[in-house]
């Protein structure tokens, strides 16, 4: 693990691969961790540097102010600062779930820093009602509890009605989820949850994103299938790959297909 001090945060990241080449920067989702990509990062780094970042309030990254702000825009600022500090003029940027929401906003405000954009299991529109209600319940739960207890309840409830997609890699998923929740700042959970609940649709602004875009979506990721349709229509240079049988974590659930799509995307952006 390495760290850098941006203007308002200390960001932790892992870098693998060679020093040469346009870097691939990986942004995890809500409650995530840079290690979300540990099973694929070395294979992604065969021909380029790969940098997996902890967003502020996640993993080992923290805001440096006494009352740090947790928002999509502060994450965009952190990521641009990170690129500046590491001397990266342009990168390929992958955002997963909430990370994709942040990546879209970075592409809109700092398009010149991106060679290409990969949007995985994400949305440029408000979440579906069930997703918003789940986040509201999480915020309410944390008024009288903590993230470790929340994770234990989520895991116990999930195991009463197992999701076969998750259970196929549950021996890694559940221990990693425990680590993710234990590492997260509870204020970051609440404030990022509110960001996702209240986010507006990016709509026609997406047409200004001029770099090549790869949309990755699991065929079983029902809450984000409509969002993937909307992104495909709105982004002028988008290619979409549906990963058959995958849920919300295509890089884990269909690794070979994910890596093939990523390799084709890299070759097409030379």
Number of domains: 1
Spatial gap, N to C terminus:
29 Å
What is the CATH class?
Alpha Beta
Tell me what the CATH architecture is: 3-Layer(aba) Sandwich
Going by helix content, strand content and strand pairing, the class is alpha/beta
Principal-axes shape call: globular
- Mean pLDDT comes to 95
Encode the helix/strand succession as letters.
Answer: EEEHEEHEHEHHHHHEHEHH
Report the sheet with the most strands, covering strand number, pairing sense and barrel closure. 9 strands, mixed
Considering DSSP H and I runs of 4 or more, what fraction of the residues is helical?
Answer: 40-55%
Low-confidence stretches: none
The number of distinct helices, counting runs of at least 4 residues, comes to 11
The radius of gyration is 17 Å
Total number of strands: 9
């Amino acid at each position: 693990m390495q760290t850098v001090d941006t203007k308002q945060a200390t960001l932790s990241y892992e870098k693998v691969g060679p020093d040469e080449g346009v870097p691939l920067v990986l942004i995890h989702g809500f409650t995530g961790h840079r290690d979300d990509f540990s099973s694929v990062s070395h294979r992604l780094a065969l021909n380029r540097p790969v940098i997996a970042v902890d967003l502020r309030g996640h993993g080992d990254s923290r805001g440096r102010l006494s009352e740090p702000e947790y928002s999509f825009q502060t994450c965009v600022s952190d990521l641009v600062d990170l690129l500046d500090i590491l001397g990266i003029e342009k990168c390929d940027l992958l955002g997963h779930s909430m990370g994709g929401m942040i990546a879209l906003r970075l592409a809109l405000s700092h398009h010149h820093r991106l060679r290409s954009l990969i949007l995985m299991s994400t949305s440029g529109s408000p979440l579906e009602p069930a997703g918003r209600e789940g986040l509201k319940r999480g915020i309410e739960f944390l008024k009288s509890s903590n993230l470790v207890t929340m994770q234990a309840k989520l895991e116990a409830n999930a195991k009463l009605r197992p999701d076969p997609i998750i259970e196929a890699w549950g021996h890694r998923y559940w221990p990693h989820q425990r680590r993710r929740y234990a590492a997260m700042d509870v204020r970051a959970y609440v404030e990022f949850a509110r960001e996702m609940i209240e986010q507006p649709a990016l709509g026609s602004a997406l047409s200004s994103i001029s770099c090549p875009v790869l949309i990755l979506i699991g065929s079983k990721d029902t809450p984000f299938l409509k969002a993937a349709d909307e992104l495909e229509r709105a982004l002028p240079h988008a290619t979409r790959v549906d990963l058959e049988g995958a849920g919300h974590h295509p890089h884990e659930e269909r690794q070979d297909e994910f890596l093939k799509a990523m390799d084709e995307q890299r070759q097409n952006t030379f």
